[in-house]
Amino acid sequence: MSTRQIFIPAILATALCLPARAAEKHPYSVNDWSSLHSAAAVAVAPHGGTILYRVDYGGFKGLENHQWWLIQPNGSGNRQLKLAKGFDPIGFTADGTSLYGVYHGKLTKERGQLAVENLQGGSPRILTHLPSGIFSAQLSPDGTRFAVLADPRRPDPLRNVRIIVTNPETSVYVINANGTGGAWWCPSLHDVGVAAWSPNAISLALESSTPKIGHHFVHSSIDVCSASGPRPVATIANATASLGWLRGGRTLAFLSTTTHVLTPDHVWTVPASGGVATDRTPHLRGSAMQLASDPQGNTWVLVARGVRLEVDEFENGALVPRYRWPGGSVEGTPVFPQVASARSSLAFTVGDPTHTANVAVEREDGKLARITDAGEKQLQSVALGPVRVVNWKGPATPLEGIVTFPAGYVPGHHYKFLVLPHGGPESNDVLALDSLSRLVAGLGYVVMQPEYRGSTGYGSSFLNAIYQHFGDRAYEDVASATDFAIAQGWADPHRLAIFGWSAGGFMTAWTVTQTHRYRAAVEGAGITDWLSFIPSSDISQIDYDARFPEHDPEPFLKFSAVQFADRVTTPLLILDGTADVRVPTFQGRELYILLAEQKKVVKQVLYPGSPHFPVLWQQRRDVWKQVSDWLNRYNP
Length: 636
Known about the structure:
This protein has an eight-stranded mixed sheet with strand order 31-32-34-33-35-36-37-38, with helices on both faces. By secondary structure, the protein is an alpha+beta fold. Strand 23 and strand 24 (about 310-315) form a beta hairpin. The protein contains eleven helices and 38 strands. About 20% of the residues lie in helices and about 35% in strands. Among the domains are: about 90-185, no CATH class; about 195-280, no CATH class; about 385-635, Alpha/Beta hydrolase fold, catalytic domain (Rossmann fold).
């Protein structure tokens, strides 16, 4: 056989193999999770022609990585910025030549301070030297001053020896854009959560809420603050969030609620001169999640309508739908130039179940177009199964959920099944790429994320239904999700599992005291004892039950998993961070000890220094190893 005869068949064989190799993909894995890139819009330059965005990705160890990029609205001019280490930009300065943000470095003794860095490079110029550093900053509409939120107190000189338990404090410090003339405005207000500049840049609207320690109930106040002092505007007997000035500067808009739970879900307004606050969206069939007013007088509201998030404009006292992302969600209110003289230009963060979050802008036809492609490279070799939004009739009301199928899903075939109740509980699962669902689906599972009563996105009555009823109503809804999956033929009724974190961790711990149907369960940072949890969490948690437990502990005990530990037969994995102040670590330890005493199949894994969810990637990767090993062992 000639050389040519050998060579031609070899070429043909190689050519035939190429499509197969190109098509080879693997299920979503922990390596994909820790390497996956996503992008989020951060700021728009005053001239409207440049967008600052951040790219996030993990790794094998350490904290989340961040890159900072600039791009033009038409998608051209994409370039990475080389900013000083420790500088986290917030927005553009008034002339658009620099970025301002929070700088942590040796010159600031590792305490965040307001700083400005030129886009062409160089060291950050530090503007503030506050003893406890700053939390955030906002440029005034005329571009001449910054409003800084910061703790006005000096740090405890013995903070490395002791921790004095007290409420955190936040006040407003105003400084000129050139770093001169800094002063505390309205120092009597020291529980400030949100600040918003007035259109004329003379004053600030401030939202304050009662702190955790010393207050059983949550109340909020709105003040207008200037250099001469505060002027009370309104007191609200509930929680509030977000704040903006409506067109003309005579009215303030914010989010609040009429429910017992503490999640603001409606748009309210109040005259800036003071008066009675009014709910402007009393019949909203959804939930208002965020609100932001731009210097041009437009007010934008992120609205959850079920598992889909959209941006509406609050106009003439009503919400008008403006921006949706097909097959997914808009993941926040738009970002815009912060000076009044700038062009009106918006940038959005969007995502869907098969693409990570990316930056989008408005096209001429009013629809959104994506201009970045973060994550596309990493996902090229990943096989993703279909995702569906499903609806079914729950025990008391229609319910919705998101189902993630494994790659290669075959209709009519029964699969291992895992129900994944979300945290919050006053939150919802968003139609976007969800890494936990994809990881579990990568093990060959059908994964169901049910929007149980207490979830946002379905109106105030649905949200409020969880109050004093987390352990029965939400449990019934999650159980009905499993029933629905079995009835649809997706779930093998003999290979069921449950996994949840935080409020979803509570649901997992509670579920295994009420039923034996699940073969494996994973509880992460979950509440197991309501009696001790509500006073010990770092934030007010009376959205579950506002009654005083010392007057009658029974309502807090009846939904506590530790009271029914003897009923558990499902193998339970408990995961907690040792530095978790949201759901203190002893919650998981208490349940673990009780189960171990009774020779139940149980394991607890603690992550040193970890908060409510691990921030170090070596710990996140181990979380998934523990979860996958547990599922493989007990629900093979």
